[in-house]
Design brief:
alpha/beta, 6-stranded mixed beta sheet
Length: 142
């Protein structure tokens, strides 16, 4: 089965329309809308995460629905020593963590599974990604 089945990708204007294209421009925010949480949506970004982890920048996971599977990530080429997982107590705390991680410039990618991001917040996150030359990925349930 295609890992991307049941996944709709909405790519912001900061990228070229593909996940790998998002790496060509720093400071991007990608939104991935899916019917289910899990590895199918994650499979879309694994090649890019593997490349970014080799640059020795952090890969921050904010409020993931599942703990990232080490063997799956390692098999895709992700440097596990560069993976940072944050479990915020509230959605607003998670959004602050995403914004800070994007803006800091120490993360190659910040992946987030948060349900409380409105349009204004997404605009702020795009700006933070731009400032920190980081790639933000927001996973949303349909």
């Amino acid at each position: 089965m295609n890992p991307a089945s049941n996944v709709t990708t909405c790519v912001s204007h900061y990228s070229t329309g593909t996940v790998e294209g998002a790496l060509a421009l720093t400071g991007g925010l990608t939104e991935i809308r899916t019917h289910q949480a899990g590895n199918r949506a994650l499979a879309l970004v694994l090649p890019a995460l593997a490349r970014l982890s080799q640059e020795r920048r952090w890969l921050a996971w904010i409020a993931p629905p599942n703990i990232p599977a080490g063997p799956l990530l390692a098999a895709a080429g992700v440097d596990l020593s560069r993976v940072l997982v944050v479990h915020p107590r509230a959605c607003a705390d998670g959004l602050r963590a995403v914004e800070q991680a994007l803006r800091a410039g120490t993360c190659g990618a910040v992946l987030a599974w948060l349900t409380c991001a409105d349009d204004e917040t997404l605009h702020r996150l795009r700006s933070a990604a731009e400032d920190g030359h980081s790639w933000g990925v927001m996973f949303h349930a349909l």
